[in-house]
């Protein structure tokens, strides 16, 4: 069981993501970001790297891809809200997208 | 420019997909299928193989993934409808999903 973040933890862990292009999802305690790459190979290359990290963390995104665009939603189904795993995976994805 | 399929071509190329789990999308001349695998690694492994084929065909899916489930929509944006490329990629995805 993964605990939902406390308010204090959100200030530390989620606020930096919200300052970096992530937004809260309407009606869900989840965060969303849209990445746009140069082409499909770059977009799917990002997904492949993120997929390996997701499996390592045992925490998987809800995501979609259309050509060079990747939409990611992060939430922890265990606690039906944001946990430390979403903060970790979100920060990792941002790092991978920078290359 | 890729031409939309004729009615006769649909009977030959799209009908077999519709008989194999693909369905027409409401309000779009597009086909959709949901694949369910054993786990995330299997689901993303399928996506990785399909991504390489998509790039080879220069024809890319609209798709999403949540853990072991992959939702695929195929349409040819050039003709805003189904073309031979959708038939090819759909059949290839079915073959890849079988392993």
Question: What would you say this structure looks like, in words?
Answer:
In chain A, a hairpin with a 2-residue loop joins strand 3 and strand 4 (69-74). The first copy, chain A, is globular, with a radius of gyration of 13 Å. Chain A has a single domain (7-98), classed as 2-Layer Sandwich (Gyrase A, domain 2). Helices cover 44% and strands 19% of the residues of chain A. Chain A has a four-stranded antiparallel β-sheet with strand order 1-2-4-3, with helices on one face. Chain A has four helices and four strands. In chain A, 31% of the residues are buried. In chain A, helix 3 packs antiparallel against helix 4. Chain A has helices at 7-13, 15-18, 40-57, 84-98, and strands at 23-24, 31-36, 62-66, 69-74. The interface between A and B is medium-sized, with 16 and 16 residues.
Strand content of chain A: 15-25%
| Count of β-strands of chain A | 4
Quickly give the structural class of chain A.
Answer: alpha+beta
| Helix and strand pattern of chain A | HHEEHEEH
Tell me the greatest interface. Answer: A-B, 16 and 16 residues
Net shape of chain A: globular
Give structural attributes.
homodimer, 99 residues, alpha+beta, Gyrase A, domain 2, four-stranded antiparallel beta sheet, 4 helices, 44% helix, 19% strand, globular
Note the topology:
Two copies of one chain form a homodimer.
Chain A: H1 7-13, H2 15-18, E1 23-24, E2 31-36, H3 40-57, E3 62-66, E4 69-74, H4 84-98
Antiparallel strand pairs in A: 1-2, 2-4, 3-4
Helix pairs in contact in A: 3-4
């Amino acid at each position: 069981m993964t605990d939902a973040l406390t308010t204090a933890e959100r200030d530390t862990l989620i606020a930096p993501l919200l300052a970096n292009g992530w937004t809260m999802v309407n009606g869900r305690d989840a965060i969303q970001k849209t990445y746009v790459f140069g082409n499909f190979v770059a977009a799917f290359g990002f997904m492949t790297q993120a997929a390996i990290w997701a499996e390592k963390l045992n925490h998987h995104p809800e995501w979609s891809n259309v050509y060079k665009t990747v939409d990611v939603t992060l939430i922890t189904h265990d606690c039906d809200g944001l946990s430390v795993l979403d903060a970790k995976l979100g920060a990792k994805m941002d790092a991978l997208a920078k290359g």
